[in-house]
Amino acid sequence: MRNMKGIFAAAVMVMGLSLAACGSSDSGSSSSGSSSSGSSASSSSEGFSFTSGSTKIEMNADASAIVEELGDPDDYFESESCAFEGLDKVYTYPGFHLNTYPVDDKDYVLSVDFMDDTVATDEGISIGSTKDEVTEAYGDPAEESDTSMVYEKGDTEMTIGLDGDSVSSLEISAVTEE
């Protein structure tokens, strides 16, 4: 049953990400990082990252090199991008989804979605961690509600879903210009 909840939560995150990418951007949302040309997609060593085995996954990094290093995914899905020219791709690995976005015929890391408690951030936070453990590891969030905490670092965000005092979802994502 716990695995089904993880799969359902991951599916909801992917669906939400897809719908958010198709939404209107007339609100002019801005990131706390510096902005440059819309086709810029440089890796951010100062942002949040995730390590799987010996593979460090940085947001906005070249996805092909990371996917090659991670090896064959358990599952793969692609769909026409609403926000970019080309295909958005989702690679499923044990415990997480790796989401990419296209720019100039090249794919970059958009986000990493945790699916279960078998993976953790570089600071040791995973699904099932407590809110206090998150605050101890990362300090006070940029945004907080009863159900989520959002941390910002460089051109990345980490969104932590909460169920009471427990982490129920975790996504590390790039802040991109569309």
From TrEMBL:
<protein>
    <recommendedName>
        <fullName>DUF4825 domain-containing protein</fullName>
    </recommendedName>
</protein>
<keyword id="KW-0732">Signal</keyword>
<feature type="region of interest" description="Disordered">
    <location>
        <begin position="25"/>
        <end position="50"/>
    </location>
</feature>
<feature type="signal peptide">
    <location>
        <begin position="1"/>
        <end position="20"/>
    </location>
</feature>
